[in-house]
Write a structure and sequence with these properties.
17% strand; 6 strands; 8 helices; alpha/beta; 205 residues
Length: 205
């Protein structure tokens, strides 16, 4: 089985969560694919202070904090593909998702032993904005930047979904996202392609 992990970076369970669900449901339609969705909502994740203790201790998790982040490391490491979703905050990802990303400093201990560990994984991005052109593209680029930093292969969608899926919620929550038929179709395209590419990549190993 290929495992696709969805990460919802929203502090609320609303339009971003719904959009990610649509993508994961589409991914699960591909044979041999299992999905999981984790939320950063209401989780206590401390800021990385770049002390490098994880590297000095030669471990693949943070040894400074005992917070909710500890439960996420193995889920990320064991997944074959990712779909990261964030609402647009000031034309960028949320603070929750940025902090989540920053806490992966320990991946250096993995990659120095196996430089191809993350290159065997793929990732898709979803951004949900209250306005039509409200920073979705820069938010998607921030998510893809995380993938590029770790060597994960970013996955685009179909025509017009060049870097990830943009959703226009009109600040109407889940109902607004669901009403964006183009955005929802783009989420499904991202979900399907992440699943298909993860399967193809795993088949070559």
């Amino acid at each position: 089985m290929v495992k696709i992990l969805g990460v919802c970076g929203s502090p609320r369970k609303s339009s971003t969560y719904f959009s990610l669900q649509m993508a994961l449901k589409a991914a699960a339609e591909i044979d041999g694919v299992e999905i999981e969705l984790i939320e950063l909502r209401a989780k206590k994740i401390n800021f990385c202070i770049h002390c490098n203790k994880c590297i000095k201790d030669d471990v693949n998790y943070c040894t400074v904090y005992q917070d909710d982040m500890q439960a996420f490391y193995e889920k990320v490491y064991n997944a074959d593909g990712y779909i990261m979703a964030s609402p647009v905050y000031e034309m960028n990802i949320t603070g929750q998702l940025a902090t989540f990303f920053n806490r992966f400093r320990p991946t250096y201990t993995i990659m120095k032993k196996d430089a191809t560990f993350f290159s065997r994984k793929v990732g898709g991005a979803i951004a949900v904005g209250g306005t039509r052109n409200g920073g979705q593209e820069s938010t998607i680029n921030a998510i893809n930047g995380f993938y590029n930093t770790h060597g994960v292969t970013p996955i685009n969608g179909a025509l017009g979904v060049y870097a990830g899926a943009s959703v226009w919620s009109k600040d109407q929550g889940t109902a607004g996202a669901e009403a964006d038929e183009i955005g929802m179709e783009n989420c499904r395209q991202i979900g399907k392609k992440v699943a298909m590419m993860a399967k193809l990549l795993q088949a070559t190993l």
